[in-house]
Specification:
The complex is a heterodimer of chains A (270) and B (227).
Chain A: H1 2-10, H2 15-21, E1 30-33, E2 40-43, H3 50-60, H4 70-86, H5 93-110, H6 127-154, H7 175-191, H8 204-218, E3 220-222, H9 223-228, H10 233-248, E4 252-256, E5 263-267
Antiparallel strand pairs in A: 1-2, 3-5, 4-5
Helix pairs in contact in A: 3-6, 4-5, 8-10
Chain B: H1 2-11, H2 13-37, H3 53-66, H4 73-80, H5 84-100, E1 105-110, E2 113-118, H6 123-130, H7 140-152, E3 155-156, H8 157-164, H9 170-177, E4 181-186, E5 194-198, H10 200-205, H11 217-226
Antiparallel strand pairs in B: 1-2, 3-5, 4-5
Helix pairs in contact in B: 3-5, 4-5, 7-8, 7-9
The chains are: A mainly alpha (270), B mainly alpha (227).
Chain lengths: 270, 227
Amino acid sequence: MADENTDATAAQPAPDDTAAQINVAGSSPEIVADDTTDDLKIVMGEFEGPLDLLLHLIRQEQVSIYDIPVARIADEYLRYLKAMQDMDIAVAGDFLVMAATLIELKTKMLLPRDPFAAPDEEEDPRRDLVDQLLEYQKYKAAAQMLWSRATVERAVFKRAEIETDKNNPEVAVGLFDLLKVFQDILARHKEEVQLEIEREEITMAEMLERLRNMVLSAGELNLRVFFERARSRRELVVAFLSVLELVRTTEVRLIQRETFGDIIAQVASA
Amino acid sequence: MTEETLNSNEEAVDEAALNEEASRELEEMVAAESAATEEADTGDTGAYTIQNDAERIAVIESLIFVSEEPLSAKTIADVLKEDREVVQKNLQELQTEFNGRNGGLQLREVAGGWQFATRPEYHEHVRAFLKSRPSAKLSIASLETLAVIAYKQPVTVPEILEIRGVQSPSSIKTLLDKKLIVAKGRKDTVGRPMMYGTSKEFLMQFGLKDLTELPSVEDFQDLAGGS
């Protein structure tokens, strides 16, 4: 309930605040402390574009949008741009285009009307601008509606992630799974009668290099294949340790695509 | 990440070894069991048949809970092999019952699906617990652009800029980056400009069931005209 209340106030159009802060006619910018940061900021009213500024001026001068006193509004508009320039604020091109439009309208309004034209035939030169303002005004109001909706929505939380959300294979491999593969291979080695003609010892550094190369060259490596290459129990132990080492240094990561499936070493950055 | 996994498992090795033993034992039992029932197997999928509405509602509730995304009535109907109308009716019943509890959670329809979510009233406490800050708000410029796209879709960049009376398309890029809008193909006109529309993410972030839930833009005219 409390939220609905805050939301109701929050849903009020932001320009009302702006209107209280800025006085374009007096063109005296205020310097105020920003509550959220320690910075001082100059409040000029933040306008999203020339149409926004025009709507603000029309409201401030309390004139009808359907019968805009172009000369007066154009002067106010130009005064505002001048104030911005005096403060070294870069005036966006959009604002200048609108200034030109307003001046053009002002001159058109000054021209005497064609005395022979029927009153209803005559097109009001302000017509396009008024249509544009009315159209923009609708979407500005819609934007405020979206703003309040988003505010409520930000206060709504969905449940935290659970294990079924992401089928993340990475988490499936633990040390135990690794040991199991190792033991399987070890057991197979025991069964096989190996005829060892010469004993070639491989160092840890060499094994690390071999593993690195094998993983890097293919992008990934089935650990079963890697372990099976080992020709002695000692080599197998070194191979196992080298896997642990590369995982520790995060050069490779281990994934298991399915439960009880083969464990694959992947380049960690991939 | 991997290191952590390894460490935490190191402590659990004994437990894991025991589990391994247990699972081997169970596997044997399962194997024996399935061998015994092999002849009796009629090819039934083995899915448990739902007896009545109350039970179906309970099942639907659990499905919505485990679904990461809002769960559509169609998906539920497909999973349960049930008529969409029945599921739809059950969903309404579930919602009435669940929300009637006035608890900390609500069952709501968003982005074409159903979802459990907290009630906004308690956001301060939830946020304190999660230690989360409110996510960054969209600028007014972005919201205006989004409003134009939401109501005028599919709409091209020049059309959007025309309504807003500005020349910079930067807020459109922002919305695209935030995945609130998506490209909807090219307009069959000079230059074939890209058309944009709102995304599912838009519906989610603004808590909308679908686009029809947006108030009519003509209503805003009265609203704006009155001020």
